[in-house]
Specification:
The complex is a heterodimer. By secondary structure, chain A is mainly beta. Chain A has no helices and eleven strands. Helices cover about 0% and strands about 50% of the residues of chain A. Helix content of chain B is about 0%, strand content about 50%. In chain B, the strands form two sheets. In chain B, strands 2, 4, 5, 9, 10 and 11 form a six-stranded mixed β-sheet that branches. In chain B, strands 1-3-8-7-6 form a five-stranded antiparallel β-sheet, with no helix packed on it. The chains are: A mainly beta, B mainly beta. The interface between A and B is medium-sized, with 26 and 26 residues.
């Protein structure tokens, strides 16, 4: 069983640039959530995708956007990068069984904005 | 806004000692989970509690969900260096997978 994989693992961007982060969900999981984890903090919910549609959004501006594909993989796009966007971006997949879900996290993509 | 506060934020103890980490909120959660995260990795689920007053044990770790489902605790007995990591609690409201994470407790167990 393949776990959640994210790419790239590390990247450096400059202010104003755009970035795309990718996530392959665990086999059989149709729900993907994205979290931002600043250094020394707990993860903050960005948004969740289920069946290719955004299913909920946290307190993040519209320049944070996402996609989910038919194979349940997902992308997180951030436009007009700001210094405060520097963080570990975590993707988590879960099976949409209607019950209490466990989040299966990838190792994250560490973004540094200079 | 739902918030989960954890205490203490940092904890450095000697191998063999016991410790308790607390997770508190003013909100009611339908379920609460504890995760451990090691450097360079994503969080890994330790336990899920769903019933007020529920107690779960995982080897040397004991988890409790408050009667009102607003708070939880994690107790580690005879801590070992392998327990070192960032402990996170996360609460979910009914019918969603939108977890609210706590601020985290960074534990270091010294040999």
């Amino acid at each position: 069983e393949t776990g959640v994989t994210q790419s790239p693992t590390h990247l450096i961007k400059t202010r104003g640039q755009q970035v795309t982060l990718r996530c392959s969900s665990q086999s059989g999981h149709n729900t993907v959530s994205w979290y931002q984890q600043a250094l020394g903090q707990g993860p903050q919910f960005i948004f969740q995708y289920y069946r290719e549609e955004e299913n909920g959004r946290g307190n993040f501006p519209p320049r944070f956007s996402g996609l989910q594909f038919p194979n349940y993989s997902s992308e997180l796009n951030v436009n007009a990068l700001e210094l405060d966007d520097s963080a570990l971006y975590l993707c988590a997949s879960s099976p949409r069984t209607g019950g209490i879900g466990e989040l299966f996290f990838g190792e994250g993509s560490r973004l540094t904005v200079l | 806004t739902q918030l989960l506060e954890q205490s203490p934020q940092f904890l450095s103890i000697q191998e063999g000692e016991n410790l308790t980490v607390y997770c508190n909120s003013s909100s009611v959660f339908s379920s609460l989970q504890w995760y451990r995260q090691e450097p360079g990795e994503g969080p890994v689920l330790l336990v899920t509690v769903v019933t007020g007053g529920e107690v779960k044990k995982l080897k040397r770790l004991t988890f409790q969900f408050g009667d009102a489902r607003k708070d939880s605790s994690l107790h580690i007995t005879a801590a070992q260096p392998g327990d070192t990591g960032l402990y996170l609690c996360a609460g979910a409201t009914s019918g969603t997978y939108k977890y609210i994470f706590g601020t985290g407790t960074r534990l270091k167990v010294l040999a």
